[in-house]
Amino acid sequence: MGQTLTEKILDDHLVEGELEPGEEIGIEIDQVLTQDTTGTMVWLQFEALGLDEQQTELAAQYCDHQTYQFDFKNTDDHRFLRSAAGTYGAHFSRPGNGICHNVHKENFAAPGKTLLGSDSHTPTPGGLGELAIGAGGLDIAVAMGGGAYYVEMPEVVNVRLEGELPDWASAKDVILEMLRRLSVKGGVGKVFEYTGPGAESLSVPERTTITNMGTELGATSSIFETDEKTKDYLARQDREDEYVELKADEDAEYADEVVIDLSEIEPLIAKPSMPDNVVPVREVEGTEVDQVIVGSCTNGGYEDILPAAKMVKGREVAKSTDLIVAPGSKQASEILAREGWTAEMMAAGVNVSEATCGPCIGIGHVPASDSVSVRTFNRNFEGRSGIEDDSVFLASPQVAAAAALKGEIVDPRDLADELDDLEAPGVELPDQYDASKADLIAPDEAIDDELIKGPNIGEVPLKDPLQANIEGEALLKMEDNITTDHIIPATSDILKFRSNIERLSEFTLSRVDDTFAQRAKQADSGFLVAGENYGQGSSREHAAMCPMYLGIEGVLAQSFARIHKANLFNFGIVPLAIDEETYEKIEQGDDIAIVDDVAEAVESGQEEFTVRVNDDWEATATLDASERERHILTAGGKLSLTKQQNEED
Ligand code: SF4
After folding, report:
1. What is the pLDDT of residues 581-619, one digit of tens each?
2. Which of 361, 363, 365, 495 is the pocket-test mutation for ligand 1 (most atoms within 8 Å of CB)?
3. 216-275, pLDDT tens digit by residue?
4. CATH number at residue 328
5. Region Disordered: which residues (predicted)?
């Protein structure tokens, strides 16, 4: 039987297990990436493992989320990251050089390689045929130590694209259509493999918009076959020699198929506050818009900003609306500036920012209270923009620019009818991505050979091995779809403590209940209770590390998001699945005890556990864990286990 492209790449990198959906497999990792909010902890963990040099083909450390360096803590973090990259042999991308996914795509992503990144949008280079997966920082540290990465073998779904996109429709609308059809849970445990004539019609930057936002479907990854377009993109980046032709076999069998006719795609928009809340733009036409931002790892490339620049050239942004362009990389900024587009945008009233994630996570350009912001980003979770009652819409650069010109949401086709000289901008790549690499420091150019730690850089917390008895209070009961942003908000006033777990943990779940952290610390042991899809969103391992530091022993939830569940194992917190009836019955403040000898039961492979509540009633909870994950849990987490193993060697 033939293989899908995903199976081929996994087969090439397989070190343990079999390619059976649902089975755990171990794969060799060729490349790793880390960004600034997750990277400090990755390197502290790498240091704690006692390893001298990173072992993958290529490691890259980016400074992109918090580039404004409001106070010394961020600057200290960036200096620490530079020193870690230099000490352990990674590339270092300076703050302002761009978002990890954009800069990685431009400089390092290569067909057929595996990439593991401590950021949930790591799958972006799937648009170039790289199999890229987001993971917790500790997994990255272990991969850098030469260890395999373990993941459940995903189901591979064929997304067959027919036809070609009409004017004013874009790659963003294709992924919004996927979200409209499949929802934010539709990709869990899956890799989406895009094939067909429609896929061939898309340029690499368009493909990476789709693979980037496959994360919002909950997918393990998304990938395109490679072809002349891939080769052409690499040639324009001066990396043609890295091209490899990769296709699924003709007789490959897919677990499922989704068919999208690109010629029927129209401009779409995700309404507040979920990326799958998608409707045609015409349904919300007329909504007044206070702010528009074009940028992010989804739509921050040269090819994304150029259409917006063409649309505003010679016109003026509506006086009632602010239009901010935050390029995804300095490469994009530099080329746009050389070609004169930056001046055209400025003349039209655009505020051109440095290349940063910034506003995507509420760092800068926070919307005004009770206002509407249209963004080309990938997420619009409530509060992510930096203000709780935000109203963020997600759309393509074309829809965003149209909104900025009109001051209200408008389908760009209708705006084109109104303004008779507004033409569909299309997608255009520069002849050559000719830009400086001054902000990228290669390992052989490193300026540090030892770690530089400022006063805000703390210690990595370690947990004791799992005990026989686990009991404590249900310290917090939460709804469905609790995100990692709820658990540890990524706003600048909080994120600056990312390398200082003692301080950061004070903000744990503060967006749900601001008394939680204090109560948890006092209790020193306890449980979290949640509905479906607990921990969705980013790969932020702080969202497991901080609850662990506060003494949380277990999470009882109806279901868990993939990366967060792996992070719970990695930090020694027991993730137990409960049914809806049990969820409804448990109240915050109830006394919970796991009846069995938990340490022994976990180690022996037991799947069902009895949960006793208030010494009054009992329910069954399920632990879905591989043998490897069980070892990790009983040791008190992956760091404790790896340290133990190193000491035994
Ligand atoms: Fe940065 Fe936002 Fe992309 Fe995350 S989703 S990498 S915060 S731009």
Report:
1. 999 999 999 999 999 899 999 999 999 999 999 999 999
2. 361
3. 999 999 999 999 999 999 999 999 999 999 999 999 999 999 999 999 999 999 999 999
4. 3.30.499.10
5. 635-649
Peptide bond into 273 cis (omega under 30): yes
My answer on whether 341 and 238 are in the same domain is no
Cα–Cα distance list, 42 to 102, 185, 376, 494, 499 (Å): 21, 28, 29, 18, 10
495 and 638 share a domain?
yes
Model-level ipTM above the cut of 0.90:
yes
Nearest one of 507, 498, 505, 383 to 66, comparing CA atoms: 498
- Indicate the DSSP class of residue 68: S
118 with 181, same domain: the answer is yes
* Structural domain contains residue 133: yes
Distance CA 551, CA 529 (A): 15
The total of structural domains in the chain comes to: 3
Q: Both 244 and 286 in a single domain?
A: no
β-pairing verdict for 278-280 and 268-270: antiparallel
| Atom 2 of ligand 1: nearest residue by CA position | 360
Counted residue by residue, the chain has a size of: 649
* Rg of the chain over all Cα atoms, to the nearest angstrom: 24
Other C-beta atoms lying within 10 Å of the C-beta of residue 390: 23
Query: Is the whole-model pTM more than 0.95?
Result: no
* Domain stops at, among 386, 418, 450: 418
Q: How far is the CA of 328 from the centre of ligand 1 (A)?
A: 9
Name the residue with tokens 């010394």. 72
Give the Å distance between the CA of 486 and the centre of ligand 1. Answer: 16
Single-letter code of the amino acid located at 556: L
For ligand 1, the distance from its centroid to the CA atom of residue 385, given in whole angstroms, is 12
